Each structure stands twice: as C-alpha cells, then as structure tokens.
C-alpha cells in the first residue's frame, strides 16, 4: 500500500491553525474521526483511501482498527510536537520505514475552507474603510491575496518551486534546498529531506559554530541578486525561519538552507530590465537615470520616495551614493520618522507600481532585517554583487535581441570590461581594509617621500 501514489492529508491541527488538539479526537466534519496511535500521538498522516473510508466506518470497529494500523506503513516514528507552526501549516519530524529522516509539512485542515472567507472579509472591510477615507488605497492587498494564497495552499506547487530554484542556482555550492519526496506528497502534505541549522539572523550561533558572518551575508546577497536580476524567479519569503545556516562537518564550508518555497514572484522581462537599470543608476548615483527608470516602474513624481523605499536610505544618501557609507543610527531614525509622515504618498506609490514590485519590496525589507541583525547592512560587497548581476542580466538581454554577430561580440566585450572593473574595485576595497593593504599604502608612501 505504501508504494501506491499516496494521497496524504493531515488530521493534526486546531481550528486556529496554530496548535494541536492535544489528545482530543477531531470533529467528524473535519475529515473523519481518527484516534492516533501512541507513536504518532496527536498527529496522523494517512492515505486518501483510508481517509475517505474512515468517514463511513464506525469508530472502534474491526474495520476501523485495520485501516488505522496501515498508517504504520508510512513511518517508523512521527514527532507530535511540530518543529515549526504558522497560520497555514505545521512541520513535523518523522522517520520513514527505510530509516530516512524527513520533514513533513502538513496543512491545517480548515485552512482551505477558511481562506476564501478571510479574503472576502478583508475585501468588505477595505471597501468600508475606503468609503470613509477615500484616500485609502489598499485594495491591492485583496488582489495580491487572491492571487498568492491559492498558490501557497498548493504544496505540490511549492515542491515544484523548490526543484526549480535548486536547478536554477545549482552553481552555488553553498546553497542547499531540501529534496522533495513526490510519491508521499499531495496538495496538502509535503514530505521533504530533513535539514536543520541555525537561523540566518542568529549571529551568536554563527560565532559559536565558526561560521563567517560576512560570508553568509555576502552569499545570501548573491543568491537573491541572481534570482531577481538574472533569472526573474524570486523566493519572496526570506524571513529567518525560512533561511538556515549550517557548517558542513566534512568540508568545513558554511551552507545556506532555503526553506518554504510556496511564495515566489515571476518577473516579466521588461520589468526585470527596468529594475536592473534602476539599481545600476542607484549604485552609480546617476539621478537622471534614477528618475527615468523609477517613472517607468510607476513611481511618477514620487521617484525620490521610491528610491528611498527601495534602498532604505535617505534621499541625501541616495544622491551621494548608497555604497559610499553604511547606514548610521541618525539616518535610521530619520527614515523611521519620515515613514509615518509620508504614509499617504507611500500608499499612493504602492497602488501605482506594478504588482510584481510589491513582493520585491517585502523581500528587500526582510533581507535588510537579516543584514541589520548580522551588522552587515549596506556593505560594499552586497552592492558589488548586485552590480555584477545587473551587468550580466542586461548583457544577456541585449545579446538575445541582437541578430548581428559583431554586435553580440561587442556586447560581450563590454560586459567583460564592466565585470573586470567591478572586480578591480572590489580588490581595491579589500586592500584598503586589510593589513596587507595598509603595508602596501605605507610602502608606496615611503617610496614617494624617498624620491623627493
């Protein structure tokens, strides 16, 4: 039976979607009455056939006991205490019959039915608020919820996203994405390779385990720059619980483990190119191009505010160059204070920009939160990685649109020169900040004074 294409469903979770029922039985209307065996405590994962059968089988009957016993075909053990719980699902650690340790993501039983009601309620409330406050422009929240929630509730879609991003970023040997066990997964239950580590914002964990904080921050920036600028397929929920770090005992290398692949944003080619060129302009402090590409992305006359929202820097820092200096405490206070003052303009801006931008703004904020926790925010390396990806992305786009062999060669040469300049600048920054660099500068200074 375990070899069949198993249609799994969870019977573990309270109506709130956050905690387990304890030792209570589930209501018959919530997918049948099932008493869970001692090994699995309050959580049961069973086949669809068994689930539908149990609806009509009297509890305690011989047939019921037989069906319940088949659960053991799937797992040797199943931990009832979840490793993590959220509004949509819980993740449990389990061991398959072959001894493989897996993570089982189980959707709360009432989420599917409740989600449509929640969206309807949100829509009604926002319409009421808009009638009272005409300037209130948050109806896009409903549009995004209607589009994204069905995708997040389909765990098979999450599995496909995980495999796609693992293949897409296979050249990054520091990235680990859990393998999906398709034969044991359905739309509501996802079985994955079990991976563990410290949260990406846990600086103390990294220091205890000999993990280089700057390397993790740099590699995380590489991942997201590659996803956003080069591939246009972006994991949009990088909160610390979904991004783990672990040092490999064998190689000594630090790995980044990317979890929860339910929410992705697919960027159109035109949007991605405008976004690339906007970030290139922001890094170079080219205000004319900042204005041009901000307007093309829907910011209109609010382009200064848009630039500040994207970079989380003051307009003064944007004009000076966001890679010139890290964020100061006073600038942070200024940004927070102005956010409240400009709330009407911010809501207008969010209503005008392409929908693709909304999840990117959320992703940027989450990544900046991680950088702040690691004390690596606005480091030059992050902007250099972004610059590389932007150069590569624009060059790939230009080559795809050119039918001339000479023109393609010209684009490739320009790309190589630009990347060489970035590498040279990175070397200069490294020398400037290193002991070796100080010796070289001191030697050059001595030679200069000796000559004269």
Structure description:
There is one protein chain. By secondary structure, the protein is α+β, with helices and mostly antiparallel strands. It contains 17 helices and 13 strands. It has helices spanning 48-56, 62-69, 111-132, 140-153, 155-168, 203-208, 213-231, 269-284, 287-296, 303-311, 315-320, 329-341, 343-352, 355-374, 380-401, 405-433, 435-451; strands at 9-10, 45-46, 75-78, 84-85, 89-96, 101-107, 175-176, 189-193, 198-199, 233-235, 243-247, 254-258, 264-266. The longest helix has 29 residues, at 405-433.
In brief:
The protein is of the alpha+beta class. The protein contains 17 helices and 13 strands. Strands 3, 4, 5, 6 and 8 form a 5-stranded antiparallel beta sheet that branches. A 4-stranded mixed beta sheet has the order 7-12-11-9, covered by helices on one side. The protein has a two-stranded antiparallel ribbon with strand order 1-2.
